[in-house]
Design a protein that fits this description.
The protein has about 230 residues and is of the alpha/beta class. The protein has a single domain, classed as 3-Layer(aba) Sandwich (Rossmann fold). Helix content is about 35%, strand content about 15%. It contains seven helices and six strands; from the N terminus they run H-E-H-E-H-E-H-H-H-E-H-E-E. Strand 5 and strand 6 form a beta hairpin. Helix 4 crosses helix 5 and helix 6 packs across helix 7. The longest helix is centred in the last third of the chain and has 19 residues. The radius of gyration is 18 Å and the shape is globular. The two termini are about 25 Å apart.
Length: about 230
């Protein structure tokens, strides 16, 4: 893996940090957010809808995977949400690194229930009090027939604990959604779920977290290194 550009710390902690750690076993999570979907700029509530990638999203996946294949070490395991926008990215990653993706509904985005497929402006016009209540406490309140952020956190937390136990010390790639990345970062970094929206990884981006017995270190957040040559 190259250390060129960005703020990534690489695969291991620095020697001073390592010397203080109770274990040198480090698990590396690479969290990939899917590319742009159709009607991306229209503020549609997608949640667990199986939204299609836009043409730009398809190109973003190709360029992200090209960068990963050149600069990243191969994952030991590759997990993905089973929704198309993530599964297509995982398929490209799997092909590039000769790893078979494991797709699961457990890594889906937060369910937004009856609001899915509608714009926020339409929802606010028809369900104004419910929308206000949701945003007043989005960690605990859920859309009608949907999940709260804490519901999502519990779902993803159970997946994380099982995955860490099975693959400790390995490199784990995950193709997933912004809500999943946010809740995982909150859990790993000790951030309150009420602050989850402070994390904003871009579409078609890579986030890296190193996990050891001593805790977790965020080495990059929502970077899109495949765009650097365009600047």
């Amino acid at each position: 893996m190259s250390d060129d550009g960005g703020q990534a710390a690489g695969r291991a902690f620095d020697p001073t940090t390592t010397a203080m750690m109770p274990s040198e076993l480090v698990t590396r999570f690479i969290l990939l957010r899917h590319g742009e979907v159709e009607s991306f700029g229209e503020r549609v509530v997608r949640g667990q809808l199986d939204a299609a990638l836009s043409e730009d999203g398809v190109r973003q996946h190709e360029r992200l995977v090209a960068w990963l294949s050149e600069h990243e070490t191969a994952p030991d395991v590759l997990f993905s949400s089973d929704l198309t926008r993530c599964a297509r990215l995982a398929a490209l990653v799997g092909e590039a690194f000769d790893v078979t993706p494991s797709c699961t509904e457990r890594l889906r985005e937060q369910s937004m229930g009856r609001w899915q497929g509608r714009t926020w402006s339409d929802i606010s016009a028809e369900d104004g009090p419910l929308v206000t209540a949701y945003w007043d406490d989005y960690a605990n309140n859920a859309p009608p027939e949907g999940e709260s952020l804490l519901d999502l956190s519990q779902r993803i937390g159970a997946w994380y604990e099982e995955t860490l136990a099975a693959h400790a010390g390995r490199t784990i790639f995950v193709s997933t959604h912004i809500g999943v990345i946010r809740t995982l970062l909150c859990r790993l970094l000790g951030v309150a779920p009420t602050d989850a929206l402070r994390f904003a990884p871009a579409v078609a981006s890579s986030t890296e977290v190193l996990v050891s017995e001593a805790g977790a270190v965020l080495t990059r957040l929502g970077e899109r290194p495949w765009t650097w040559s365009e600047r």
